[in-house]
Amino acid sequence: MTFQKSSSTSSIFHMLILWFVIVLFCADGLRAEMGTTPNLKHIVIGRCYSYITLVCPNSSYDCEEIWREFEEAVMRKSRCNVKIKDYKRMFHATPQTLTCGKLLFWSKTRELMHSYAAVTRRFWTLEDTLVGYMFNDLIWCGQEEKDRGFDFNSCPDWSTCVNHPVYSLWRQASQNFAAAACGNITVLLNGSIENAFNRKSMFGGVELDSLNPRMVDHVNIKVVANLEGPFLESCTQGSIVDLINVLQTRGFRWTCTDSDL
After folding, report:
1. Do you find a cis peptide bond into 156, omega within 30 degrees of 0?
2. CB count in 10 Å sphere of residue 230
3. N or C end: fewer C-beta atoms under 10 angstroms in the chain?
4. In Å, how far are 84, 195, 203, 230 from 27, measured between CA atoms?
5. Residues 6+ apart with CB under 8 A from 32
6. Which residue has the higher pLDDT, 146 or 9?
7. 47-65 per-residue burial string, b: 16 or more CB within 10 A, e: under 16
8. Mean pLDDT throughout 101-106?
């Protein structure tokens, strides 16, 4: 359990943070303010084939079967009542073994997270898994009455549904991702906002509780703020302290860095 202040930063990381200044920190949730993404079936199946051909060529998945299980999960329930368990068969068709020591978790640092993972090439995010790759940035929901197909005109916002079809899928995917974590993991948080660690976020409310202290060696927290501020949270103040307390209570070993990447 240590705090770290790095004495040197590579130019590429400085460029990343500089770029980060002009990009708004993105929220965790994808807001479904429009209808189902047009051509959803072709996009999902196409991404699946791209994944097994280019991203993980040694993997073997039945992309058509995955789509059928996904479609059935969404169609057989009303649009605001698609529960996590409804996706069980789809997730059963997409098993994946993740490499220890490479997983990157994030909250309200979406754009920087993808850039950080791309530059270092040593991290895997949820979006790098098959399910994350297939459904990233997509929206879907069924018609008001079940078994009527997808609604391409309007989907409810997450906050208006008890069991939103998009939220339920990502909640299960996040839980699976965290439960598979082993070795050292990294958590990237936003130091320029209040409540960088939020128990209502996907990381704070789902992934953190799914981490296994017997499988995870260290939780390496990285707090990144806008170069021009505001500097609201750090390893020693704000909600980051709450995260550290949770980790300590659950028996995790941790480090925290808030000076640079």
Report:
1. no
2. 11
3. N
4. 22, 12, 12, 17
5. 139, 141, 155, 156, 157, 158, 164, 166
6. 146
7. bbeebbeeeeeeeebebee
8. 94
Q: Which of 1-15, 88-102, 143-157, 168-182 has the lowest mean pLDDT?
A: 1-15
Q: Could you identify the residue written with the tokens 């930063």?
A: 9
Burial per residue of 157-174, b for 16 or more beta-carbon CB atoms within 10 angstroms, e otherwise: eeeebebbbbbbbbbbbb
Rounded-to-10 torsion of CA 115, 182, 52, 168: -80
Q: Is residue 145 predicted with pLDDT exceeding 70?
A: yes
Residues 6+ apart with CB under 8 A from 172: 84, 87, 91
- Distance between CA atoms of residues 49 and 198, nearest Å: 35
- Provide the phi-psi class of 183: left if phi over 0, else alpha when psi is between -120 and 50, else beta: left
Residue 78, pLDDT score: 86
Q: By C-alpha distance, which of 114, 158, 109, 150 is closest to 132?
A: 114
Q: Are 255 and 244 in contact (CB under 8 A)?
A: no
In the chain, DSSP assigns E strands to 2-4, 104-107, 183-190, 216-224, 253-257
Q: What integer is the mean pLDDT of 26-41?
A: 69
Q: Hey, which residues are catalytic here?
A: 100, 182
pTM above 0.90, yes or no: no
Q: What does the alpha-carbon distance between residue 79 and residue 47 come to, in Å, rounded to a whole number?
A: 24
Go through the domains of the chain in sequence order and give each one's CATH number. Answer: 10-257 (1.20.82.10)
For residue 177, what are its two tokens?
């991702």
Q: Measuring CA to CA, which residue among 219, 229, 166, 165 is closest to residue 197?
A: 219
Q: Position of tokens 């958590």?
A: 187
pLDDT band for 158, please (50, 70, 90 cuts): confident
